[in-house]
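Students often ask why we bother encoding 3D structure as a string. The short answer is that it lets us treat folding as translation between two languages. Here is a chain of 230 residues written in the first language.
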Amino acid sequence: FLLCSPHNPTGRVFSADELNRFVEICAAHDVVILSDEVHSGFVFKGEHAFLPRLSETAARISVWGSSPSKTFNTAGLRAASLGSKNPELNAKLKAELTASQPDRSIFSQTAFAAAWTECDDYGEQVAAYVKKNLEFAVEFFRTRIPSIKTYLPDATYLMWLDCSALGFKTQTELSEFFVKEAKVALNPGESFGPGGEQHMRLNTACPRSTLETALQRIEAAAARRCALLG
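And here it is in the second language, the structure alphabet:
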């Protein structure tokens, strides 16, 4: 079972009760949970629960994955971690990683360790900045782009935009509207699976000036579209 916690793209923080229910179901069917917790540095509502710590059962059937790439913007270093409290699963992980020979360098490993052990202040400041960006964007959509619906996510720096009122029949048309009309490239909702139709994902982890420019472009394009629809 592939679990993204906190969830991307909806920004949902799962409660301990919800996670324990996932564990209960998966354990009953002998299913291993791979928990991607890469967005746990950006939690604004509720509390992130690290899956393997929830219970002995959770520890036995789960593998967790994380990276400083989101919190510290180090994706280009290609450094991440996978682990399990289950010795058997851990041995399988090590065998697979050894066989696949993932890219590694002393530079990426040094940065990985420094991010997690020496940069708490930076991470906290980035999270605070992102939270203000999210609040700014939510208010901007509410007051100036009412044709696109969104909400303040519990976590992550991503916003899930409901664009169904713009009246496009396909995701391709919607995506092209943002690129060609608004001059802003967002992630198409369909790429995240069923239920993503008519949605787009907006990244707010950028300077406020960049975010404001993007929102102003979307505002103008949405106004033209709504005028065309009458």
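Translate back mentally: The two ends are 45 Å apart (CA to CA). Keep this in mind for the problem set.
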